[in-house]
């Protein structure tokens, strides 16, 4: 069963929520037109990494956000599975989380992951660490979601493996200066399951993501990799039955926005 996947390798503008959402929607629609049915955004794609310096945190919505509702309708109408990275306000506790939402092809929020290994201080001091590791069922595939530093060490990936994950997806904002080294490849060896990393590009404050890579990895090897300064769609084909890469390279499409 071949599935076409699109990684949105984009440069969100810090605090420019409307602009970033339009860029994401544009990326989703173009990806769908290119045949992709799984579409993934990088960490904090909706707001940029240092958004709190610009707009604070009062704007952060709960899961009932109107914009996410629009994406649910779009996912249902186009039969898309979306991983959308947007900060979340817990409706019960008021805590803020760095969250990746999974919207399935039925238009439902099938699950979410709250980043566990948050950076303290100014970078992610607004975010309360998540506590739960639970794979999300997406079109019959158990998917473990980890956000950026969650995959720095192997224990969280192994927890997903122990709970039945068949695939790991990692939305990231991993800069080029202190790169991941071989950590992504090591996670695939330790857990014996493949990994897709959707990283961002661009610059904010003193962080440079232009050399940051989006990656497909399996069995300890980096099979596909892309870095660059342009907003891009990275398209590849994946066999979900065999958990094998079918593409020899990313198809890269520039996204103007």
From TrEMBL:
Does Hydrolase appear among the keywords?
Answer: yes
Return one GO MF term: hydrolase activity, acting on carbon-nitrogen (but not peptide) bonds, in linear amides
Pinpoint the CN hydrolase domain residues. Answer: 3-240
Q: Which SUPFAM superfamilies match?
A: Carbon-nitrogen hydrolase
**Which keywords does this Swiss-Prot/TrEMBL entry list?**
Hydrolase
Q: Domain of life here?
A: Bacteria
Name of this chain's protein: Putative amidohydrolase
Native organism is Dehalogenimonas alkenigignens
Q: What is the lineage of its organism?
A: Bacteria, Bacillati, Chloroflexota, Dehalococcoidia, Dehalococcoidales
């Amino acid at each position: 069963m071949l599935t076409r996947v699109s990684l949105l390798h984009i440069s969100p503008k810090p605090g420019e929520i409307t602009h970033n959402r339009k860029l994401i929607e544009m990326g989703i629609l173009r990806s769908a037109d290119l045949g992709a049915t799984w579409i993934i955004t990088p960490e904090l794609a909706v707001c940029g990494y240092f958004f709190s310096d610009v707009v604070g945190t009062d704007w952060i919505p709960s899961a009932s956000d109107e914009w996410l509702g629009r994406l649910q309708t779009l996912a249902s109408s186009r039969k898309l599975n979306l991983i959308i990275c947007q900060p979340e306000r817990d409706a019960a506790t008021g805590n803020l989380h760095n969250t990746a939402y999974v919207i399935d092809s039925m238009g439902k929020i099938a699950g979410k992951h709250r980043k566990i290994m948050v950076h303290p201080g100014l970078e992610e001091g607004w975010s309360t660490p998540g506590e739960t590791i639970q794979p999300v069922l997406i079109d019959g595939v158990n998917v473990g979601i980890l956000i950026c530093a969650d995959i720095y060490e192997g224990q969280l990936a192994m927890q997903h493996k122990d709970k039945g994950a068949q695939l790991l997806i990692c939305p990231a904002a991993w800069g080029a200066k202190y790169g991941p080294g071989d950590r992504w490849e090591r996670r695939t060896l330790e857990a014996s399951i493949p990994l897709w990393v959707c990283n961002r590009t661009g610059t904010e404050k003193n962080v440079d993501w232009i050399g940051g890579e989006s990656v497909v990895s399996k069995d300890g090897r980096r099979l596909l990799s892309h870095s660059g300064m342009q907003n891009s769609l990275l398209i590849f084909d994946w066999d979900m039955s065999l958990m094998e890469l079918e593409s020899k390279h990313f198809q890269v499409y520039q996204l103007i926005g």
